[in-house]
Amino acid sequence: MMAGTPIVEDETPPTRDTTYYISDGNTVLQVENTLFRVHRSMLVKDKSTFDSMFSLDAYTQNTEDVVALSNFIAEGESDENPIRLHGDKADEFRALAWALYSLPAEIAVSMTIQANDLQLIHLARIAHKYQFRSTEMWALSALTQFHSNSPASGGGSPPVQNLVQITELSILCEYEPLRNAAVAKWNRLLGEGRAVAVAIGVAERLNLRKLLGLAYYSMMLKGREVWDSDPQLNARQRVRLLSGHYNLIKLCEDLPNTPPRLTHDSSCIRKGKCKNAFGALWKLVLTTKEGGLVGQVMKLQSADLLAKVMLAESVVRAYVEGNIPQLDLSSVEGAGEVQMHEKCLPIALAASQDKVKEVQEHLVEWFSDVV
Predict the structure, then answer these.
(1) Coil, helix or strand for 245?
(2) Among the listed residues 37, 80, 364, 339, the one whose alpha carbon sits nearest the alpha carbon of residue 214
(3) Where are the domains of the chain?
(4) 8 Å CB contact between 371 and 249
(5) pLDDT in tens, 9-55
């Protein structure tokens, strides 16, 4: 090529959509590099943004606006002068056309486990943008049902990228049921040690604090070699992991001596001794010791605070329900009289359950930017 010769970009002409370029349609739209020909009457359903776009009431009757209106109406009459929808994707508009033109039997499939969740994601996003309100709510409801019923792992698992998109969509549309379904699926993935770095990124970007805490916690348990080698983690996130590891080790060291606060039944007249007995049970479960029921704590990582409080809760539950032999609490330092009041036992279990919830809720707070 000679110097100074202008470079001419080869622009590929748009192509007609194979399904939704309808021969008797009266409006042509271009989305990305795809042409759609649909009926204008379909686009103005549900009092959408298109209704305002096509309405004469949107314009005042001065000369300039009449000219603008005539130019706008001319758009969409041919392939050469389509209405261009900027910022949208062809797959999104195709999903909208599917929703507008599908038969009831086709729509019904979307409320089952056989649904195409990516199609529903595209539909909900474009319906939200153009204010197809009832279509948006229907798509969000269908997505919630699909992701509430489908498994998070195995052959039925949707791609992680789809899960990222429904999480973003739930925030964009402020639709709490879908957000809860998405977070539940993230939690199951994290429990399997999958997509942890992706979950950290999504939770930070969308400010999902409980999910963020669990994601950092799951990554922390993988060990520093994994943190340092994972290309999806940045330097600040690695600092937060180090900080969390340090903080949680300290909490785990103090945990045997800090049982949950125990309230008492009104019939309990020896509250101090009852409290000591519960504290002895809590300490016995969480003290490192070879063998026996409580030896399970030795199998846990030193910073695995959540697993330790869950272990303690499960042993307290078994103790309260009489499913394990009476433990010898007398050997625990400071136990004193080791018999809890009978009616305080379910209160102790509830306190243990609250401790698990507290740790889950506040995990993110231990992963600060400063070690």
Answers:
(1) helix
(2) 364
(3) 13-89, 257-366
(4) no
(5) 447 899 999 999 999 999 999 999 999 999 999 999 888 888 888 77
